[in-house]
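Researcher:
Attend to token order:
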Amino acid sequence: MRDPRRRLLAVVAFVLLGVLGVTACGGSQMSPKAVQEANRKAAGLGPGDSVGPNGQLPESVANPDDPQATTGPNDPSVPNGPADPSNPDQPQPGGPGAEKGDPLLPSPSSCAGFKNQTGITDSTITIGNGADISGPVPGLFTATQQATKAYVSYFNSKSSICGRKLKLITADTRTDAGADQQASAKFCEQAFATVGGMATFDSGGAAAAQACGLPDLRAVAVTGDRNRCKVCFAAEATGDHEFSNAVPDFFVKNYKAASKKAAFLYLNVGAAAENGVTQRNVAVKRGFDVVYTKAIDVAEFNYGPYVQQLKTLGVRWVQFLGAYQQEVRFAEAMKAANYKPDVYMLDPSAYDEGFLQTGGDAIENTFVYVNFTPFAENAKEFRLYNTYLQQVAPGAKPTFFGLFAWSAAKLFVEQSIELGGKLSRPALVNSLRGVKNWTAGDLHGPMQVGAKHAPSCIRFLQVKNNKFVPIKGTKYVCNGYSKG
């Protein structure tokens, strides 16, 4: 009998390694070495940081509640020391001159009528962040908490909201619905809003947040319950059984013959199975002919029989929905069978250094679609994220989950500043409902945050000589979305 805890660990290790569909995705079992590496990357740890033999993180990373951020003179969110004012990407010290304006921050609105309320005092606005830090895969979403801390550091060094600095309190949702519920209950009492959070079982806190009217602006909403919560939103918007038209349209236009002999394979676990079906159905609506569809057991290690079936059917276009470890293994199985489809297509889960490092020549020419700006293009907002990330977590690596947490924090600040003296929980929720085409300073494609629809704007990359290279230009292709 398989160990159910190992199975859960494997599923959680992959959950949401690429979210452009319905909710989360599933995973597969990994070796202890692979689990440790996944933990290190999920936590944003650098090569010099240690991960324990059982995957545990250093205490400073594993316990996000100690210490909680303050706004005193020793606050780590406010950089100290010399700064170069000519370098906009270098953190500037706080103080009287810090609020003269930053071109990446909105101009202050009128603060007339501003009232203190839950989470707001004369000097601070408290925001909460709940993320999976401990649990079966320690550090799973530490990157989202680090990115939120990084934005707080940036903002507090530059500006304020009606004279108030941000204060961040955190909670470990422990890959557990009960812990997520406890986090929401804590934030209902102590915080004005929650920002940048991400939890595998985020359904746990959805009802609590809605009951107390807590504005909840997440990096990503993982479950349908969180997405349906009336006060909950996400910087990476998702929609119920929706998928971008741009993905199938790109291949129908540029690789039409291949799209007429297509196959969809996905892990048969959780939302991965749901996403696989949704994406297949949207592809058919957009002109694909699908000759093979297969849900693969999460514990399956031998992909040879599936590859043989693809060869027998003459499949020319293959999508595999899984973690990058499985995506590499499937590519290796195709290589071993001397089978090379015209298109091997993956979702953003493949946008990872580990994919490039382990894939070798088996992944050459692999296609990857993304809804965020590739890191190598160094958008100014990305440089800010990375710069301040190093302030709060030296050696941490930017991740696309962290990118969307930064985006959520940026959106919270912009909405709060715009509301000014009218800021309140109900006003913020109502304002978020109207957010359209949010890009967070070109960090990612336009997101329909208020309407909660799947991203319609996509970019395409291809692996060339062990690098992700843009194909067919660097502009987003926006063709709406379809129900699948």
Summary: The longest helix spans residues 400-419. The first strand starts at residue 124 and ends at 131.
